Amino acid sequence: MELIETDVLIVGAGAAGMYASVSAAKLNAQVVLCDKSLISRGGATVMAQMTVAAAIGHQEADHWTHHLQDTIKSGQELCNENLSYLLCKNAPEKILQMRDWKTDWANVNARIRQVLAPGHGIKRCCYVDFLNTGTAVARTLRGQVAKLKNINRVSGLTIIDLVIEKNQVIGAIGLNTETGEYVSIGAKAIVLAAGGLTQLFARNSASKNMGGDSHALALRAGANLMDMEFVQFFPIGHLAPRLVGMDPIMWDPFRYKLGGRLLNNYGEQFIEHYGGEDGDAYTVGRDLAAYAILKECEAGRGSPNGGAWLSFQHLSKVELDEAFGPIIEKLLANKIDLTKQAIEVAPIAHYHMGGIEVNESMETCVKGLFAAGECVGGANGANRLSGNAIPEAFVFGEIAGASAANSTGETPQLSLQIGQNALSNSLVELSCHAKQKSQFQTVTSRKLLFELQKLMWKNVGVLRNKQGLQMAIDEIRRMKNDIFPNLKPASGTVFNTSLMDWLDLRNSLLCAEAICLAANERRESRGAHQMEDIPFKSDKFTKNQIISMVDGDLVSRWQDVQKLEFDLEKQR
Amino acid sequence: MKNNNQQNVFTKLNIFRGTDSIKPRFETFKVPFQQGASILDALIWINDNVDESLSFRYSCINANACKECMMIIDGQVEYACLKKLQKSGSKLEPLPNKTLIKDLVTDIVPPKEKLLS
Fold first, then answer.
1. A351 in Cβ contact with A198 (< 8 Å)
2. The CATH number of the domain where B101 resides is what?
3. Out of 3.30.830.10, 3.90.700.10, 3.40.50.620, 3.40.50.800, which CATH number does the structure's domain A235-349 have?
4. Which pLDDT score is estimated for A500?
5. Cβ atoms A449, A489 nearer than 8 A
6. Which chain A residues are Cβ-neighbours of B65 within 8 angstroms?
7. Stretch A291-312: mean pLDDT, rounded?
8. Contact B9, B33 (CB under 8 A)
9. Which residues pair with A234 in a beta bridge?
10. Pick the CATH number of A426-543 from 1.20.58.100, 2.60.120.260, 3.30.70.120, 1.10.3720.10
11. Could you give the ipTM of this predicted complex?
């Protein structure tokens, strides 16, 4: 086992992790920035094809307080408003900083082009053509990271667990996937920035590595999670025909730019029947649109593959060519001709509002442990506004990196011996299996993950009910306690995908349990948490739910929501 | 690969297996054929259903954003997520100009992103 030492370890190299590493390095901290995939390529950032919300007011008058009001409204009284404030207040500066760093925001007459997106009252959302926002952002930050000599970039390093002594981070243990060797990393501070957990659901827009690593690492280290029940289901994810080479959520900007018609199997528009105002704006909230599509399916009016039709057939070929640009060619390569056919769309798990509980310095209740990006809970409450994920990654990344660099605790040193011990504790399930044969030998990590994804989709998806949630909890505990410890990853050291899958699943099962437990405790419907058998909001649940691990078990408690301590109107 | 309407049609993938220390060979996998499915879909199907030890790189699955799944498909450099599965089958090999790590995985990590570099 190797031992390496650094000031700050950053886990995950998407927008949040890269921003954090730049901000920590500029304060002269020695940084290790690692990703279990490749730096800047593996997470959600690079897949973000769409928009970034920031009140820069380049298209119409705007102010961060308006953005904050929209964010809080969308969060349905559950936003940690101090975090939402940080997001909205600092987003404009980050957009302009990214422009200085040569992100090519779409612009008109030297002003950044901003469009209206669902839930925003003002044209506020910036983007990079065509459907290229995430790639462009990732490239920019990758360049900034590479300029700083005190950032040590490490691709292909999976963090297995954090090492904590007396509630203080002292380092982490990891697996070098390309060699199969284990590594100890001594660090005075750690920033978790490994993204969301939507891979837990059968229908998702996630990359393979979004199975909740940050959340599980945080829980096992003694930090809290909050509002885990709030998973955003993106209403019109691509369903059919098979479309490769495109992010499944690509249709949304075209729908509101061009007025794409959402139709049931009888060719009728239906959003209005569920209290939505789709009208001519096509900006109905994500939660309501997802709900409406599933209800149409339940009533037997869904499209053949279990979704709704999205049609652009009211537009001419010229209009489509102009709006879609090079995307039209990619669609034709998939044998999709929008002038001749509608496509099928359906809700898919897209973002997770809940996450690690942090204060305004992005620090958890564990000293030296910080978090940034999608894995942080609170800023978006019960439902995230379109366009808030990327600015959240920028802003929280920068704060977390600076806080981590400035974190000045008297840190005990991580020794090789402590690292070895931590590793044996983490892999105890793996080693105990080697000694026994079991009935589960035909089950693999992949198969169990597949079962978990189906279960989460069916019982903990867009529409939930008490019975389904209880069943899910029981089943997940059976998977976690009875089946998982008996799985045996294939042997081998070099690029052992089977061991990587096993480590992923270990985290995913813990996150799944946290989500189900939280969903089951919230006996109301609010934002992205919709209970069929309790279809109303209840004031007594206007609280954040905290999940923590006590003696190996997950427990839930309620906590007052943090409100702004100043008058927004006076900030203008 | 969730469509059931072509469940009984199969195709074959002839896949390079091996590492520096394990003798290279080709292994043939029978995979379900579905209209529109990608080579990557089929590789993931193999991992899920037949052999979880088959190694290949991918993150984004579908979006052609991570660019990790580049390999040689029927003699051409391709992204497995973009290349469609053929009824006639395909031959998959690792990139020839990169150091082999395992199966279809080659060393595409930039030198400055290595541990202890």
1. yes
2. 3.10.20.30
3. 3.90.700.10
4. 95
5. no
6. 41, 46-47, 134-135, 247
7. 95
8. yes
9. A348
10. 1.20.58.100
11. 0.93
Q: Does B50 touch chain A (CB under 8 A)?
A: no
Does pLDDT of B7 surpass 70? no
pLDDT of A435 above 70:
no
Q: Please list every residue in chain B whose beta carbon sits closer than 8 Å to the beta carbon of residue A135.
A: 65
Per the structure, the count of domains in chain B is 1
User: What pLDDT, on the 0 to 100 scale, is given for residue A449?
Assistant: 96
CB atoms within 10 A of CB A295: 17
Domain A2-52+128-231+350-417 has CATH 3.40.50.2300: no
- Predicted local distance difference test score (pLDDT) of residue B4: 47
Residue of A nearest to B84 (CA): A244
The domain limits of chain A are 2-52+128-231+350-417, 235-349, 426-543
Residue A12 clears pLDDT 70, i.e. is over it: yes
Q: What is the mean pLDDT of chain A?
A: 93
Count CB atoms within 10 A of the CB of residue A128: 23
Question: What pTM does this model have?
Answer: 0.95
Residue B5 belongs to some domain of the structure: no
Domain span at residue B41 reads 10-113
Work out the number of other CB atoms within 10 angstroms of the CB of residue A439. Answer: 9
Return the CA Rg of chain B: 14
